[in-house]
Amino acid sequence: MSTPNIEQAATIWMVNDIPTQMVYAGRRWRVTDAPTRLRHSSWTVPLEEAHTGLYGWRFQGTDEDGMSLVFDVHKGIDGWQVHRTYQ
Q1: CA distance 30 to 66
Q2: What is the pLDDT averaged over residues 56-79?
Q3: I need a labelling partner for 17 at 20 to 30 A (CA). Which of 23, 30, 37, 63 fits?
Q4: What's the domain count of the chain?
Q5: Residues β-bridged to residue 75
Q6: The domain containing residue 72 runs over which residues?
């Protein structure tokens, strides 16, 4: 089941350029799986734009109450954004 979100800001901590923790929606989420890099598909990048490679991350996060969600995040102009969550 997916729960689409309006893009919302997140603060992400990285270790060796891999997400380990995030603050989102007033909660601290600990990354509890192996994050997967999300990349642009050659079909989704407009012809006039250069292919930029790394698009974002998908990872499972677990909050202090034990609730787990899967997050798709990407880095925007103003920092990290949560694009979508999944239960």
Answers
A1: 10
A2: 93
A3: 63
A4: 1
A5: 80
A6: 2-86
